[in-house]
Design goal:
The protein is an alpha/beta fold and 404 residues long. Helices cover 38% and strands 20% of the residues. A hairpin with a 3-residue loop joins β9 and β10.
């Protein structure tokens, strides 16, 4: 029996998302989530998609789950009840989403003690994410020490950004000492979507230049030339770039000095302000684009202003990345907002005819869960909507590594 199953784990500070995939046909066998880990009101939602358990649909249970170890053991029990347990000989590896790989990790990597120590050393670059990622790895290794554990890094796809684009124009020794440079994030999404866009166009990925707009609560843009990322909007951290749900995106750095000197805010207070209380939320009180659009449609001034700022930033990046690429074959929208908010796509493309962009209003407004073109037939540049699949990308990278 050939082992072809990959368990994908995305470990957060108080959550554990998981999917079990069979890479023989890229099918999903089970999906689930454990949230509020460490609380009395912990919740596990498990959905088997194949086998005898699938007929019953989702299963949910609540009650205290003390830590990530207990969470993964609970997940293992749910999978075992469906005949999909972690002890299955068909399980080839566990693929872990790791947010920050620094300059050391630029491709998927089998985890050993040395690799784990290096991931831990990168915690200062991603203090909110890497600690939870490390915990997930440690727990999975303790349950199946014999099974390959593979780290797939959010930053890896952007490691090809040229050095002149990755560098910030600060003192070179300071940048080196503190590892300050552009890393970029959402890399698994940008990798998957750029390839899927080429497939949608019916062209080899090496021949396609695409601007990918990953628009969720977090949002990022990338310029991908022939399957290789050459520019991306997020930087040292996920704060830089587009207007997001709760993050400011691009900001004059002097705003931070001003808030400290004049406003008397501490570094931690400014960090919280820019990451958790800014973006759409800061401008209008809502970080859900659906609510922003509803309120703007009813004439709400704050929501209208937030939407205008969001779209304005998108247009700037589309224009900038068109210049970086020289030739653009497609602009692709993905993730929750990009896939579902046709008003965002319409507003972002409006006025960009000089760049070869134009929408088919009917195609753009139609809802679908499939990859599709929404550009006008006469448009020189395709506009695409491609649902992202980060879990499949992680599974594919992990499976390719352990079967080489």
């Amino acid at each position: 029996m050939t082992a072809s199953r990959i368990l994908v784990l995305n470990s957060g500070s108080s959550s554990l998302k998981y999917q079990l995939l069979d890479m023989a046909d890229s099918s999903r066998l089970a999906v689930g989530l454990v949230e509020r880990i460490g609380e009395e009101t912990s919740r596990l939602v498990h959905e088997p998609l194949t086998g005898p358990g699938a007929a019953g649909g989702k299963r949910e249970r609540t009650g205290a789950i003390a830590d990530h170890g207990a969470a993964l053991r609970a997940v293992s029990a749910e999978l075992a009840a469906d005949g999909l347990g972690l002890d299955s000989p068909e399980l080839a590896a566990v693929g872990h989403r790791v947010v920050h790989g620094g300059t050391r990790f630029t491709r998927p990597t089998v985890i050993d003690d040395e690799v784990l120590a290096e991931i831990r050393s990168l915690i200062p670059l991603a203090p909110l994410h890497n600690p939870a990622n490390v915990t997930g790895i440690e727990v999975a290794r303790s349950l199946r020490a014999d099974l390959p554990q593979v780290a797939v890094f959010d930053t890896a796809f952007h490691a090809t950004v040229p050095e002149y684009a990755a560098r910030y124009a600060i003192d070179a020794e300071t940048a080196r000492k503190y590892s300050i440079r552009r890393y970029g994030f959402h890399g698994t999404s940008h990798a998957y979507v750029s390839r899927a866009t080429a497939a949608l166009l019916g062209r080899p990925v090496e021949d396609v230049n695409v601007i990918v707009l990953h628009l969720g609560n977090g949002a990022s843009a990338s310029a991908v030339r022939g399957g290789v990322c050459v520019e991306t909007s997020m930087g040292l951290t996920p704060l830089e770039g587009l207007v997001m749900g709760t993050r400011s995106g691009d900001l004059d750095p002097a705003v931070i000095f001003h808030l400290a000197r004049v406003g008397g805010l501490s570094v931690d207070e400014i960090d919280s302000l820019l990451n958790k209380k800014s973006g759409l939320l800061g401008m209008c009180g809502d970080n859900d684009m659906r609510e922003v659009l509803r309120r703007a449609g009813e004439g709400d001034e704050a929501a209208s202003m937030a939407f205008a700022a969001y779209v304005h930033r998108l247009k700037k990046y589309i224009g900038a990345y068109s210049a970086v690429l020289g030739r653009v074959d497609a602009v692709t929208f993905t993730a929750g907002v990009g896939e579902n908010a046709h008003q965002v796509r319409e507003a972002a493309v409006d006025g960009l005819a000089a760049l070869g962009l134009a929408l088919d209003p009917e195609a753009n407004a139609a809802r679908s869960s499939r990859p599709r073109l929404v550009s006008a037939e006469y448009a020189r540049v395709a506009v695409a909507v491609v649902p992202t699949d980060e879990e499949l990308e992680i599974a594919a990278q992990a499976y390719a590594l352990v079967t080489q």
